[in-house]
Amino acid sequence: MALVRIRVGETIMKTQTQDTPIKLQETLKRQRDILAFRMKKLSSKQSDFNSKTAKLKEKIMKKYDDMKRVLDEDLRITLCQLDTEAEAMERAVEDNIEKSYHLTQEIDQQLAELSAKLEKDKQQSQEKMSEMKVRIMETLKKTDPELLQMDEFKNKQLLSLTINLLLFIRSQVPVTKKLFQSYAQEVVLDPDSAHPKLIISPAGDSVTYTNTWQEVPENPSRFDTTLNVISRTFFQNVRNYWEVQVTGKTYWELGLTYPNIPRKGREDNCWLGRCPTSWCIEYFNGDYTAWHNGVPHELTHVSGRTFERIGIFSSSEGGFVCFLGADTMIPLYSFYAGTFTDSLYQAVCPGHDNQGTNDKPLLICDASKSTPIL
């Protein structure tokens, strides 16, 4: 089977002086047929992706429906148990009230009889009075409200179990958190690439902006205008995930870049996401923007919202880059590069001081550990 290679944007063939217009026409027709077949295959691939995604969504939705049914049944049983106990308590109270009522009726009757016979038989009356006092004391003792106590220990245990169930569910939701944690990648920032106004921690796990120009050696890899720093090493795995803590900051940029991102001068290409070799998400005074190849995408669905951590997931299969609010794993924006043509490095920009509101550092987190789901 012949292997035909197409290079988009390059010369399809080299013409020779002896080629006739008819041969050229036939060659172009064959190339056109090949491209038409390629477009058909791509369309089929897209349909296959859509079909697989739809089936996966259907299976996941069914599982969530099953979880909802289980939780609804557990709730029904719990509430039923509480209702049963409440009904038993109510019956016990009503029974004691009834006993007390009947006894008061007897007391009234005895009082009437005693009034009539008091003068006739004082001794007999005293005996009956003594007997009545005993019965009264016994009844008061048996009907003491303090004897009717709810099982507070059981109730606390029931509430504790319910809380534990909630915590367990929260630890599993969203399931993407567990999935991305399995792709967690260690990130160590490279001080040799950092702009001179950036301070990199000794461990390479944080970067802080300072208004003072640092005494650092000049080298070709150092950014000299943009406030960027990239990682020491590139991704080794097909799928990778990392997180950055952005708490308390009003300006930052996070993303991925090829090693050949421009690093010198004031060209826009030196900024993350402003060239075809990098992808980033930018946060500035409450607004989020995703950038690639100089094209901005405003993220209005999270405007004004703050996150403690931002997660970045990438997969070389399909050239996928996804930014997430790692607190709740809410997707912020995704890019599809088709394929990555070079190694990927992590890149961060802590931003300038923003009128004194942006002095906090960017902290590289251990993405393999869970963060609270709010």
Overall pLDDT score: 83
The spatial strand order of the largest sheet comes to 1-2-13-4-9-10-11
Distance between the termini: 57 Å
Helix content: 25-40%
Annotated CATH topology of the largest domain:
Jelly Rolls
Q: Helix tally?
A: 4
Q: Shape, please?
A: elongated
Order of helices and strands: HHHHEEEEEEEEEEEEE
Q: How would you classify the helix and strand content by structural class?
A: alpha+beta
Query: What portion of the residues fall into strands of 2 or more residues?
Result: 15-25%
CATH class of the largest domain: Mainly Beta
Radius of gyration: 38 Å
Give a short account of the largest sheet. Answer: 7 strands, antiparallel
Uncertain runs are 1-17
What's the number of domains? 2
CATH architecture descriptor of the largest domain:
Sandwich
CATH superfamily of the largest domain: SPRY domain
**Structure summary, number of beta strands:** 13
Any overview of this molecule?
The structure is a single chain. The chain is an alpha+beta fold and 374 residues long. The chain is built from four helices and 13 strands. The chain has two domains: 23-173; 178-364, Jelly Rolls (Sandwich). It has helices spanning 21-117, 122-142, 152-172, 175-181; strands spanning 198-200, 206-209, 229-230, 239-245, 251-257, 278-284, 287-292, 295-298, 309-315, 320-325, 330-336, 345-349, 362-364. The strands form two sheets. A seven-stranded antiparallel sheet has the order 1-2-13-4-9-10-11, with no helix packed on it. It has a six-stranded antiparallel sheet with strand order 3-12-5-6-7-8, with no helix packed on it. Strand 1 and strand 2 form a beta hairpin. The longest helix is centred in the N-terminal third of the chain and has 97 residues, at 21-117. The protein is elongated, with a radius of gyration of 38 Å. The two termini are 57 Å apart.
